[in-house]
Design goal:
mainly alpha
């Protein structure tokens, strides 16, 4: 499958390596594309933070205001974590994520399975 247009180095690597271990539904491919874009965005934010920290003048203790960039970086990291968790839950191919989730998993599919199991137990 072709890499989506506009991905950076990290996003392209993530796309290739993810497809090498997972077989994803079309919906999860869209999520993977967004995760790759977020990974690239995190690289950009990190480079902005590194440039800003290089401009710090220790002799006058003047610091650049990086709180906005840090906040955005944290939000993007959280979004990436959630998207990757959703992709792993919907993963249909071979690989580490293909194993059955532990009892009490948090995915929608797992919840539906537990509800159906309890209904069968109540009926039988």
């Amino acid at each position: 499958m072709d890499e989506p247009d506009g991905l950076g180095e990290r996003g392209r690597r993530m796309w290739r390596e993810s497809l090498a271990i997972w077989s994803l539904t079309p919906v999860h491919l869209v999520l993977l594309e967004e995760a790759c874009r977020i990974a690239d965005r995190l690289d950009l934010l990190n480079s902005m933070l590194r440039l800003t920290s290089a401009d710090v003048n220790e002799s006058t203790t003047q610091f650049a205001d990086i709180s906005g960039v840090l906040a955005e970086s944290r939000q993007q990291s959280s979004a990436l974590k959630l998207i990757l968790a959703e992709i792993r839950q919907g993963q249909i191919g071979a690989g580490p994520a293909a194993e059955e989730p532990a009892e009490g998993g948090a995915g929608v599919a797992d919840l539906s399975k537990r509800i159906a199991d309890r209904r069968r137990q109540a009926e039988g």
